[in-house]
Design goal:
α2 links the parallel β2 and β3. The chain is built from eight helices and seven strands, in the order βαβαβαβαβαβαααβ. α3 runs parallel beside α4 and α4 packs parallel to α5. It has 256 residues and is of the alpha/beta class. The structure holds nicotinamide-adenine-dinucleotide. The site of nicotinamide-adenine-dinucleotide (NAD) has 30 residues, from α1, α4 and α6.
Length: 256
């Protein structure tokens, strides 16, 4: 059941062509938001926007590579051109974790991952916040970190650096823009059943049955919609006294 807690709000969700971003875009539309489905996968992204629209929601696809400043600026401009304003953003797009020990890490992949997962999140905040400031009245930004932003797995130096960075950047933006009523929080998911998780498992050779109990006190992977629910709450006015913090949506992994 979904309450219309984003009724009339305009929301950007990056990385919305699949996985958690897809579930977030769908849930936000169910909650009444006009959703910008932003992704660099144009084929799947356009399908997601069409699926939301066919189900009675409001959505528009925008192609973006979040590591490009020009494209992120264009994404925000297209949001305003399409729906007139911006209220909420979930900065979710990311590349899958690297898979090598520190002494072996792939420097090219480091550059690519940091440009998407870290700088891409910073660029999204930069241009989203500019729009929120120009409008006045505030807004809510949700950055997607990870358990790897708090409690790393081995062999993920680039991903761990990026996801720790997302937590820090979230706090910086919260400090800077609280006075303008722009709230900035993060969600740190545990192991969630998405294409990214399955790609990462395939590389490590672990099965879902082996891995899930190691990461979850509930003994199962999370579903994208369960993370989307945390983002929905942070995006909405229901969380109006939260800024600069993280929701650990990880089935107790970081509590262990
Ligand atoms: N799946 C997990 O277990 C897990 C756990 C913790 C955190 N996370 C985080 O949750 C978020 C979503 O992960 P997911 O599992 O749904 O991933 P996913 O790989 O299933 O989907 C990621 C989406 O991001 C898009 N994307 C990638 N790079 C992009 C770019 N440069 N510009 C625009 N779009 C881009 C992809 O096309 C895809 O649609 C990510 O930030 C990820 O790091 C995932």
């Amino acid at each position: 059941m979904t309450f219309p807690i984003l009724d009339g709000k305009v929301a950007i969700v990056t990385g919305a062509a699949m996985g958690m971003g897809y579930e977030t875009a769908k849930l936000f539309a169910e909650a009444g938001a006009k959703v910008i489905v932003a992704d660099f996968n144009a084929e799947l992204g356009a399908k997601v926007a069409a699926e939301i629209t066919e189900a009675g929601g409001t959505a528009h696809f925008t192609k973006v590579d979040v590591s490009s400043s020009e494209q992120v600026q264009a994404m925000v401009a297209e949001t305003v051109a399409t729906y007139g304003r911006l209220d909420v953003a979930v900065n979710n797009a990311a590349l899958k974790p690297d898979n090598a020990p520190v002494a072996e890490f792939d420097e090219d992949y480091w550059d690519r991952l940091l440009s998407v997962d870290l700088k891409g999140t910073a660029l999204c905040m930069k241009y989203e916040i500019r729009q929120l400031l120009a409008q006045g009245g505030g807004g809510s930004i949700v950055n997607i970190s990870s358990v790897s932003g708090f409690r790393p797995q081995p062999n993920n130096i680039a991903y761990v650096a990026a996801k720790h960075g997302v937590v820090g950047m979230t706090k910086v933006a919260a400090l800077e823009y609280g006075a303008q009523n722009i709230r900035v929080n993060s969600v740190a998911p545990g192991a969630i059943d998405t294409p990214m998780l399955h790609a990462a498992l395939a590389e490590t050779g672990q099965t879902a049955e082996e891995f899930a109990p190691q990461l979850s006190l509930l003994g199962r992977f999370g579903q994208g919609r369960e993370i989307a629910q945390a983002s929905l709450w942070l995006a909405s006015d229901a969380s109006s006294y939260l800024t600069g913090t993280t929701i650990h949506a990880d089935a107790g992994y970081t509590a262990r």
